[in-house]
Design brief:
single chain; alpha/beta; 4-stranded parallel β-sheet; two-stranded antiparallel sheet; globular
Length: about 210
């Protein structure tokens, strides 16, 4: 394989979910397909790094303009409920919640989850910025509830407990997303933890 082609394949293999063979297939496609495709992709990647940055308020992805702080479309949306702040681990989680249409509040992206095995401790999380966000808002923009929407994994649960503990002294209500049996799923295939939470989180009809 030519050196430059191998280099592109190596870079593509760094992307999440892309293995060595898939990376080679992508690289070969870019090298042999219409020249406009690879050149347009190259320009788009360059512009991505130049003009897209984390939102300075919540950490979501946002268009950035020279000399101005990046502000995402959610933070600039005046129709959002300022009283509800949803804390997520990653931007991907934020996008998934947005697709559901069930969340009309604001967001705060931690960027990572508490994971001692991977060397991610409490000091690695932007907890001070989160507390300032909750403490700094007042009047109509005051935060009344913080919904912790980290995944129901070991790291996600540990992060949720840490966030609840850190915010406990601020007098704000801290809630956790519910978890249970997925819609359309069969009980016989649900794991014990999922079933246990579904039963613990039961609610009355009507």
């Amino acid at each position: 394989m030519p050196e430059r082609l191998a280099r592109v394949a190596q870079l593509l293999a760094r992307l999440p979910g892309v293995g060595e063979k898939t990376a080679q297939r992508f690289a070969l496609f870019l090298a042999t397909a219409d020249e406009a495709v690879s050149r347009e992709l190259g320009r788009a990647l360059t512009e991505l790094r130049d003009h897209v940055r984390p939102c300075h308020r919540c950490g979501n992805i946002a268009d950035a303009h020279p000399g101005e702080p990046a502000v995402c479309s959610i933070c600039s949306d005046t129709r959002r409920d300022d009283a509800l702040l949803c804390v997520v681990g990653r931007v991907q989680d934020l996008l998934a919640i947005e697709r559901s249409g069930a969340m009309r509040g604001r967001y705060f992206v931690l960027g990572r989850l508490l994971s001692p095995l991977e060397g991610v401790g409490a000091e690695e999380l932007p907890l001070d910025a989160l507390k300032e966000r909750v403490r700094g808002a007042s009047g109509p923009e005051a935060v009344a509830e913080v919904l912790v929407a980290t995944p129901p994994s070991v790291d996600g649960e540990a992060t949720a407990l840490l966030v609840a503990r850190e915010l406990g002294a601020l007098g704000v209500r801290v809630t956790r997303i519910a978890s249970g049996v997925p819609h359309g799923g069969d009980l016989e295939f649900a794991d014990q933890v999922t079933l246990g939470r579904a039963i613990a989180g039961r609610k009355s009809f009507g």
